[in-house]
């Protein structure tokens, strides 16, 4: 039996929606940590991943199960905010462009054949950059005010033993204007669980401030409309886990949105869901590839457009859908020559298309 934690959904849950701890620390704490070439969060991160555990827990509906893996995510308070949308869009565009540059040499090969694709494992069919893009996209939509997945469940306040009046520094840390807007605006619970940590650098010598053990570790406080795209990704992974691949395709389509480049990637991912459905839905696979290619073309992602059009050719070859075949071959040839890309392959593709088109005219099938 496959370990749920090792499935794509399980990995996504562990990496993206495990509990968040907000970190507030003084400059002297960071200064001490940077002597080792690490930030405070980087220094603590390896100790936030718990494996080989066996803890009994209960769900909200009081169903028992055992927890074998657990992870905490640490974020500085200054990072607990939604990323700038324009910066995030540019970052995603760079991911897509780089993927096109890395994968494009493959299109100089022969056209893919549908039967060959169907005989391969899913991991061999899906473009490798999909997973990285999806992860980046989910992260650009984090820390929203209507979704609590990324809202901190605890706050770690960290002061250096070299700070003057450490107790006062602890108090000051949580009463500054540097707190996340989620907290100041009331979206987060202000009665967040607080942990206090005093950091001492041995290079600074003995500290008379360790005289009071309570400085080292204290606890105070009480325990503590998702974004459509993020919600869609969770939904998609759950559907895939249940082998409802066709249904996952419809979710990709529904979260396309108005941004053309975003829609292009979602449509391409939807197309592969139709290919992997049981039985395969080849016409929908080809149709969504063409739609995706059109969107890529409008965004000047020509290499991605050519790749999707080439994959679509394999679906329409030998069919009577001549208009769409002509259109796809036209775009492959036009953009390949316009950009001096894969000319030998394009000659082969177009020659084959002309031959097939001529045969269809001779047979009266137009």
From TrEMBL:
It comes from the Eukaryota. One of its GO terms (cellular component) is TRAPPIII protein complex. This is Trafficking protein particle complex subunit 8. It comes from Gossypium barbadense (Sea Island cotton).
């Amino acid at each position: 039996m496959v370990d749920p934690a090792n499935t794509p959904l399980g990995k996504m849950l562990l990496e993206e929606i495990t509990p968040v701890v907000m970190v507030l620390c003084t400059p002297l704490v960071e200064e001490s940590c940077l002597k080792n070439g690490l930030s405070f969060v980087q220094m603590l991160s390896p100790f936030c991943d718990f494996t080989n555990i066996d803890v009994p827990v209960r769900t909200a509906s009081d169903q028992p199960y055992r927890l074998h893996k657990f992870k905490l995510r640490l974020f500085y308070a200054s990072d607990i905010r939604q990323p700038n949308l324009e910066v995030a869009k540019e970052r995603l565009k760079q991911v897509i462009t780089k993927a096109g540059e890395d994968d494009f040499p493959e299109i100089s090969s022969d056209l893919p054949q549908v039967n060959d694709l169907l005989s391969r494992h899913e991991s061999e069919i899906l473009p490798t950059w999909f997973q990285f893009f999806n992860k980046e996209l989910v992260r650009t939509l984090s820390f929203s005010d209507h979704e609590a997945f990324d809202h901190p469940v605890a706050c770690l306040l960290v002061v250096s033993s070299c700070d003057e009046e450490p107790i006062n520094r602890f108090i000051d840390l949580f009463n500054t204007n540097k707190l996340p807007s989620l907290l100041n605006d009331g979206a987060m619970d202000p009665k967040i669980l607080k942990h206090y940590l005093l950091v001492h650098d041995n290079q600074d010598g003995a500290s008379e401030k360790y005289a009071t053990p309570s400085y080292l570790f204290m606890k105070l406080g009480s325990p503590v409309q998702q974004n459509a795209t993020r919600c869609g990704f969770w939904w998609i992974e759950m559907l895939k886990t249940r082998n409802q691949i066709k249904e996952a395709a419809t979710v990709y389509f529904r979260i396309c949105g108005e941004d053309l480049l975003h829609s292009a990637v979602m449509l391409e991912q939807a197309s592969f869901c139709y290919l992997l459905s049981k039985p395969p839905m080849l016409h929908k696979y080809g149709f969504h590839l063409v739609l995706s290619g059109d969107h890529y073309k409008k965004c000047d992602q020509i290499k991605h457009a050519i790749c999707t059009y080439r994959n679509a050719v394999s679906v329409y070859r030998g069919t009577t859908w001549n208009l769409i075949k002509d259109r796809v071959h036209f775009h492959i040839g036009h953009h390949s020559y316009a950009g001096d890309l894969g000319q030998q392959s394009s000659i082969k593709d177009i020659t084959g298309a002309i031959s097939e088109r001529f045969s269809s005219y001779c047979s009266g099938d137009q």
